[in-house]
Structures are given as structure tokens and as C-alpha cells.
Design goal:
Blueprint (H helix, E strand, L loop, with lengths): L2 E4 L6 E4 L11 E2 L5 E8 L2 E8 L6 E4 L3 E5 L5 E7 L2 E6 L5 E6 L4 E7 L5 E7 L5 E7 L11 E6 L3 E6 L5 E6 L6 E6 L12 E4 L9
Antiparallel strand pairs: 1-2, 3-4, 4-5, 5-6, 7-8, 8-9, 9-10, 11-12, 12-13, 13-14, 15-16, 16-17, 17-18
Length: 210
């Protein structure tokens, strides 16, 4: 497997050399397009690297963390350092600040709001259900009780993302029998759901699957 960067204006691609042989590299690109993070296998252990998009050489950031998103300005990253914990990671110093700590469940995916003041996260619960929630990003770590529930299902949920204005959450769900794109509008101030979930793209016919 490999990580490729495609210039959408020219169509040209760059390939970052990698040693991984599994589909677990989890590439993430920063909002300003200057950095890309990815995981690679080195001597049998997965490590996380960050590389400028103009370079093909990545710098090792950590061994036990996984970068899920970047803060605006690309000086900090949102990283999972434990199955139940998210932190703000200083890419220069390696220092961390707690963002989210769950007592019940594990963090599977997460994304920062455009203003960096909120985080949407996908969690796996002890009862086997999956949930998508929103929590504030503050000086101390948010917990389970701070979560604002967006979706909860015993079917597949995945890939929660913010709209550019921060007022809609998009995600994947197989609750209607096929994996489709769904969304939920939010109150701009409180980020609580404003209305029911609605389908954005349904894929129920043909061989195409998300």
C-alpha cells in the first residue's frame, strides 16, 4: 500500500514511499494543504509520520498515537493516544493537552470543527452499539457526560465530518440496509441537533457501494 497526493488542478500525483503491506495507513491532510499525516510499518511496528506535501520524506511523530485531524494553522494535530483518549498534539515539541477522555467506550474516529472549538467523534460502546457525538474543546478534557448525541445505532456508523460552516454533521450509516451518506443539522451556538437526520446520498441499487 502507499499514500498518494494528487494536485486537483493539474492531476499530477506524488507518492510517499512506505513499507506497509496492510490497509491501515490512515492518511490525513491539513486544512491548509501543507502537511499530510500517515501511519507506516517500521520493523513490524506502526508509527505515525508527518510530511510537508511538497516533500516525500516524513518525520516520525509518535509510535502509539494516530493523527485523526489537524488544527487550523497546522501547528497542532488531533491525535488518539489511547483507545479512549484524544489529545491536542504539538507537532514541534510533542507536548499534548487532553481533549476527550471516555470512561465507557472507545474512540474510533474524530474530526475538528472549522473553528477548532468542537470535536465530533465516533465511539464504540460496551454494548456493541456505535455512536456519533459532539463535545466542546476546552482547557480540560471533555468526558462522556459532555457528549451531544448525533447518531446511535447497532448498524454501521462511520466517517463523521463537519460542513464548512460547522452547522451540519455528515456521516456514513447502514441503518437502512445499505451504507449511505446521512447528515444532521445543528444549532449554530449549542451544536445540539436541530431536526432529524436526513439522507444526502442513497446507494441502494447497482453494484456501487460506499
Amino acid at each position: 500500500t502507499e499514500v498518494r497526493l494528487r494536485d486537483l488542478a493539474t492531476g499530477k500525483e506524488k507518492t510517499i514511499p512506505a513499507g506497509s503491506t496492510v490497509m491501515g495507513m490512515s492518511p490525513q491532510i491539513s486544512p491548509d494543504g501543507f502537511l499530510v499525516a500517515y501511519r507506516d510499518s517500521v520493523a513490524g511496528q506502526f508509527k505515525t509520520f508527518v510530511a510537508p506535501t511538497g516533500s516525500l520524506i516524513g518525520r516520525e511523530i509518535c509510535q502509539d498515537c494516530r493523527i485523526l485531524d489537524f488544527y487550523a494553522g497546522s501547528k497542532f494535530a488531533l491525535a488518539r493516544v489511547d483507545p479512549n483518549q484524544l489529545v491536542r498534539l504539538d507537532l514541534a515539541s510533542g507536548e499534548t493537552r487532553p481533549v476527550l477522555l471516555l470512561k465507557n467506550g472507545t474512540v474510533l474516529d474524530a474530526a475538528l470543527a472549522p473553528d477548532d472549538r468542537w470535536v465530533v467523534y465516533l465511539s464504540g460502546r460496551p454494548d456493541g452499539r456505535a455512536a456519533i457525538s459532539i463535545a466542546p474543546v476546552g482547557a480540560t478534557a471533555a468526558s462522556d457526560s459532555d457528549g451531544i448525541l448525533i447518531a446511535d445505532d447497532d448498524h454501521f456508523l462511520g466517517s463523521p465530518k463537519w460542513s464548512p460552516n460547522g452547522n451540519i454533521i455528515y456521516y456514513l450509516s447502514s441503518g437502512d440496509g445499505r451504507c449511505c451518506i446521512w447528515a444532521r443539522r445543528l444549532d449554530p451556538a449549542s451544536k445540539k441537533p436541530a431536526g432529524e437526520a436526513f439522507g444526502v446520498m442513497h446507494v441502494h441499487e447497482g453494484s456501487f457501494r460506499i
